[in-house]
């Protein structure tokens, strides 16, 4: 949350980045990144209350619409064609639009990067499942595929973070 919306206080009541320093005392850019180049990832459950209900409805409706489209394509063109639509990050477009409006284009761009890494990780997931599901137990195939997804996504994130420095 920006400092000017709530009098310079974050949701936990502490002073926000007015002085350019984060709560741990390190210099900050004000966008969650410290000046040392590392990004701080924080989970703030209270932020879920921030978007107005209309924004949640838009995200839900867009996701439901893409899922319905995937179902229709599956019926008309087969499950392989429909599966391509299921890989589409259904709420990404709606979310990015709302994030850009509320938090700025920079934050929306960071969300797109994260979604891209996650989607590319899904390729690793698909390759593992495709090659193992008929020879391994289902639970093992899905477990290894999930680990592959995480490994690909996190590796791409780490590489992109290093390249941006």
Protein described:
The relative contact order is 0.07. This protein has five helices and no strands. With 165 residues, the chain is mainly α.
Topology readout:
Blueprint: H1 53-77, H2 79-86, H3 92-103, H4 105-132, H5 138-164
Helix pairs in contact: 1-2, 1-3, 3-4, 4-5
Helix/strand/pairing category: mainly alpha
The amount of helix comes to 55-70%
Distance between the termini: 25 Å
Low-confidence stretches: 1-36
Biggest sheet record: none
Features:
165 residues, mainly alpha, 61% helix, 0% strand, globular, disordered N terminus
Structure at a glance:
With 165 residues, the chain is mainly α.
């Amino acid at each position: 949350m920006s400092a000017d919306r709530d009098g310079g206080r974050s949701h936990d009541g502490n002073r926000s980045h007015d002085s350019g320093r984060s709560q741990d005392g390190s210099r900050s850019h004000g966008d969650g990144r410290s000046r040392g180049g590392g990004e701080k990832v924080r989970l703030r459950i209270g932020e879920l209350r921030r978007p107005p209900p209309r924004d949640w409805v838009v995200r839900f409706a867009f996701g439901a619409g893409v899922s319905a489209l995937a179902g229709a394509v599956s019926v008309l063109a087969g499950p392989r064609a429909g599966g391509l639509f299921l890989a589409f990050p259904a709420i990404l477009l709606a979310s990015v639009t709302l994030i850009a409006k509320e938090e700025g284009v920079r934050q929306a761009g960071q969300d797109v990067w994260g979604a891209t890494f996650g989607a590319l990780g899904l390729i690793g997931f698909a390759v593992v499942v495709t090659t193992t599901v008929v020879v391994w137990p289902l639970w093992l195939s899905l477990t290894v595929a999930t680990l592959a997804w995480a490994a690909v996504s996190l590796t791409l994130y780490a590489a992109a973070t290093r390249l941006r420095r």
